[in-house]
Amino acid sequence: MASLGAARWLLLLVAGAACGPRYTPDWPSLDARPLPAWFDQAKVGVFVHWGVFSVPAYGSEWFWWHWQGERRGDYERFMREHFPPNTTYADFASRFTARDFRPRYWAWLFEQAGARYVVLTTKHHEGFTNWGSPVSWNWNSMDTGPHRDLVGELGQALRERNIRYGLYHSLLEWFNPLYLADKKNGFKTQNFVFSKTMPELYDLVLRYKPDLVWSDGDWEGPETYWNSTSFLAWLYNDSPVKDTVVVNDRWCNNCSCHHGGYYNCADKYKPGTLPQHKWEMCTSIDKRSWGYRSNMQLNELMDESSIISELVQTVSFGGNYLLNVGPTKEGVIVPIFQERLLSLGKWLRVNGEAIYASKPWRVQMENTTIDAWYTSKGSTVYAIFLSWPEGGVLKLSSPIPSASTQVTMLGFSETLKWEKAVDKGLLIALPYVPPSVLPVPCCWTLKLEGVA
């Protein structure tokens, strides 16, 4: 199996080279590729961390690593209390049943959440693949556990709803003998890359034709080890998704925030100022984990206002917002996660005009005591304020009003009265109504037309 996968990868590489690629396998050429427009317009995505780590559902998706590492004692205690003696990590695979996985319901839920794209973990650092990878031996969802093509099923359901599909894939595998041997050799050998990583990446693209390849597991191996630039040159030149596919920046050590289609930089990255390059913030409803934890507590989860506030700030700085949920081993997205997603979607149905396909304005946020953030579309400016001002009058110092200035609130039909502030900006009289009448319970959007 491994030799067939490696041979297929080599044939693709040769074929791509023979076609005379438009992008060469080096960062100056690859970084010059324009980012497909759909990604910047999408703004909102859902991340899904799902795998064998969902079986112990303890600590985080890094369960296996911690069990074998510095936190071994805590994890051995957990294993004694929850599983039969001598249970190994490999034994978890048969318990990863996905018995209640309903891909069409997931797709409906993500659509209701306002997500324009979804990224699924096809393989995390544990190495288990959520599709029948031909180079995974039996460590995959077709040969054990669910006996289902989880990647393919979700992709079909999402595309029925015109939601873009992204595939997360880890370059490394913590305990794969081939990877450990290459690592021991100082990454001077590439047996793991040629027989596992690259064949899987090509297989994912050819089988599922993803809109996005979300790479991870890059931090140990250098550029000369991973051969990522050769894969990306094929992806951009000769793959079936060459004109539409988007990739992130995790392709080798020292690559994040420097090379790739758009930048993740780091988990939960917040730039603080407007970056010059397209970026994405990935974060998780469970603040302590990306994978499902059975013992998570309510105070460890992001609430509705925190999610919306983070989304607004991210988009104001020109980023995309990728919000993570971790399903159970049976394939259930637990009700508290569903509630958070549906709350986000309800807010976006009212305020999405200020989010989707928007651009950063000349000012991203108010520099006064008012917590307000700006986006724009052409000459229209949107001011999203996160707390209701005392007295119901909002002062915005940044917009310059004119005689034709008009102010409305998204989700509220009446035009709002305003006057020019004594020093600069606008004083806006907000609707004088009970909070229950307002279209959303937090983070309201003013649409400003005719301002400079």
What proportion of the residues form beta strands (DSSP E)?
Answer: 15-25%
The portion of residues assigned to helices is: 25-40%
Low-confidence stretches: none
- What is the overall shape? globular
Number of discrete helical segments: 13
**Number of E-type strands:** 15
Structural class: alpha/beta
Q: Mean pLDDT score, rounded? A: 94
Q: Indicate the CATH class of the largest domain.
A: Alpha Beta
Distance between the termini: 63 Å
H and E string: HHHEHHHEHEHHEHHEEHEHEEEEEEEE
Strand order of the largest sheet: 5-4-3-2-1-7-6
Describe the sheet with the most strands. 7 strands, parallel
CATH architecture name of the largest domain: Alpha-Beta Barrel
Determine the CATH superfamily of the largest domain: Glycosidases
Gyration radius (Cα, Å) is: 24 Å
How many domains?
A: 2
Query: What is the CATH topology descriptor of the largest domain?
Result: TIM Barrel
What do these coordinates show?
It is found in: Lysosome. This is Alpha-L-fucosidase. Its main location: other. Keywords: Glycoprotein, Glycosidase, Hydrolase, Lipid metabolism, Lysosome, Signal. It comes from Chrysemys picta bellii (Western painted turtle). The protein is an alpha/beta fold and 452 residues long. The chain has two domains: 2-354, Glycosidases (TIM Barrel); 372-449, Immunoglobulin-like. 30% of the residues lie in helices and 17% in strands. It has 13 helices and 15 strands. It has helices at 2-18, 27-31, 37-42, 63-68, 72-82, 103-112, 150-160, 177-184, 191-208, 223-226, 228-237, 304-316, 335-351, and strands at residues 44-48, 117-123, 164-170, 212-216, 246-247, 279-284, 319-325, 372-377, 380-385, 393-396, 406-409, 412-416, 418-420, 426-429, 444-449. It has a seven-stranded parallel sheet with strand order 5-4-3-2-1-7-6. A five-stranded antiparallel sheet has the order 8-9-15-11-12. Helix 6 (103-112) crosses helix 7 (150-160) and helix 6 packs across helix 13. The longest helix is centred in the middle third of the chain and has 18 residues, at 191-208. The chain is globular, with a radius of gyration of 24 Å.
